[in-house]
Automatic annotation (TrEMBL):
Main location: membrane
Localization annotation: Cell membrane
Source organism of the structure: Medioppia subpectinata
Protein's name according to its UniProt entry: Kazal-like domain-containing protein
Cellular component GO terms held in the UniProt record: basolateral plasma membrane
GO BP annotations, alphabetical order: sodium-independent organic anion transport
UniProt key word Protein biosynthesis: no
Topological relation to the membrane, as annotated: Multi-pass membrane protein
Transmembrane segments: 12-37, 79-100, 112-133, 153-174, 186-206
Pfam families listed in its UniProt record: Kazal_2 (PF07648), OATP (PF03137)
Keywords: Cell membrane, Disulfide bond, Membrane, Transmembrane, Transmembrane helix
């Protein structure tokens, strides 16, 4: 990266700040799901409860996206390992009393057929879509040739707006028609089938594969050329850069013939 600075102290400070932020996020998260939802369900009429719960869930998704994080779209600083804190804190809170009492509670839950069916359904559903949810941004960035910030922007829009709309419409449907268990289960099944069809159709969409300078039809890979023959470029530091034709990628600015460290394309003043 151009202008690299800082070191382990800067990284350690960033980790500390993220841990503190996760603590406050956890407080708000618990308050919403553990306190707010039961309180809302107990405070309104049973008929209106689905509408209020769906509205609260939709607004909760839209709230974080309405705040500007103060990071430019070209900024490459994106952190994806947000889930590590849950593992560390969850492991730290395991006590002797929890381990002794948990088996009795698990045995009681295993005797509940509704809970078992719901858990199996949720598990299989997450098993099917977890890869898509985890690598959605990377897939958009690679398949549609966008920057990391643009890919995260589109993945956020895809994940937030349709989900919030679906939650609200689902609550509105339940409030208006008051469907029974069979009708509601049938509706969920139909919606899931449409979701599967949409994901399968996405496999046939994308942009043409970009060319990578140095690849040949006989599977030989040689990044050296007349443009970078005397540059002594490093083959271990991967900094991909796009060529002037907007189709050819280079391993690094050095292999593209750029003499400036901060060159963003091969058509700069000091490029060969």
């Amino acid at each position: 990266m151009c202008g690299e600075s800082g070191g382990s102290e800067t990284a350690f400070l960033a980790v500390i700040l993220l841990c503190i932020a996760s603590v406050f996020y956890g407080i708000g998260y618990v308050a919403f799901y553990i306190i707010a939802i039961p309180f809302m369900d107990d405070s309104v009429r049973k008929k209106n409860s689905p509408l209020y719960l769906s509205l609260a869930g939709a607004l909760r998704l839209c709230g974080p996206t309405s705040v500007d994080p103060g990071i430019e779209r070209t900024d490459p600083r994106w952190i994806g390992a947000w889930w590590i804190g849950f593992i560390v804190i969850g492991t730290a809170f395991i006590t002797h009393y929890v381990l002794t009492d948990i088996w009795m509670r698990i045995k009681r839950l295993l005797k509940n057929p509704i809970y078992i069916c719901y858990t199996l359904g949720t598990t299989t559903r997450l098993f099917a879509v977890l890869g898509y949810l985890t690598f959605k941004s990377k897939y958009i960035e690679s398949e549609y040739k966008t920057s990391a910030s643009t890919a995260n922007l589109f993945s956020g829009i895809i994940g937030v707006i349709p989900t919030a709309t679906g939650i609200f419409l689902g609550g509105l449907f339940i409030r208006k028609f008051l469907p029974g268990p069979r009708l509601l289960t049938s509706l969920i099944t139909i919606v899931e089938l449409f979701a599967v069809m949409g994901m399968l159709s996405a496999l046939f969409l994308g942009c043409p594969q970009s060319q990578f300078a140095g690849t040949h039809h006989n599977s030989r890979f040689d990044m050296q050329s007349m443009c970078n023959d005397n540059c002594f470029c490093s083959e271990t530091k991967f900094q991909p850069i796009c060529g002037p034709d907007n189709k050819t990628n280079y391993f690094s600015p050095c292999f593209a013939g750029c003499n400036l460290r901060c060159s963003r394309c091969v058509t700069t003043t000091n490029s060969k």
